[in-house]
Design brief:
Layout (H helix, E strand, L loop, with lengths): L8 H15 L3 H14 L6 H17 L3 H16 L10 H16 L11 H8 L5
Helix pairs in contact: 1-2, 2-3, 3-4, 4-5
Length: 132
């Protein structure tokens, strides 16, 4: 699997399944779904998948009230997402990074933070449109 947009049906389906789970608030299940893809993906920007997996873990921590763990993972998730070519992935990477930065600032200020709601499945649909 070199390019996620031209991935095997199994990988593409698993990526979408993880997005659906994430959007539904089943963050640990999304983490597990994306890990299936991460284990077999051999592309140069494999770290992007790791960033998605860590975003799911961030939300899992936030929902459980573990803000310190969430804050630590935000930095590494952002790093992994930022180092990949954003056009190779069906997600709005700039939006993901902006959301991560906002959550990090809120946590650093000691404010209560809810898990990220990102609309990942809609991003996949939008990325499949011919205009992108």
């Amino acid at each position: 699997m070199d390019d996620p947009r031209h991935a095997s049906r199994l990988h593409a389906a698993q990526l979408r399944h993880g997005a659906d789970l994430f959007d539904a608030g089943a963050w640990w299940a999304a983490h597990e779904a994306w890990e299936v893809v991460w284990r077999t993906y051999r592309g140069a920007d494999r770290a992007y998948l790791k960033g998605l997996i860590q975003l799911a873990a961030v939300n899992h921590h936030l929902a459980s009230g573990r803000t310190r763990g969430a804050r630590r993972l935000l930095d590494t998730a952002s790093h992994h997402l930022a180092e990949a070519d954003p056009l190779r992935w069906p997600f709005d990477t700039a939006h993901l990074l902006t959301a991560c930065a906002g959550i990090a600032r809120a946590l650093d200020a000691g404010r209560a933070v809810r898990p990220l709601r990102l609309g990942l499945a809609a991003m996949i649909v939008a990325s499949a449109s011919p205009s992108r």
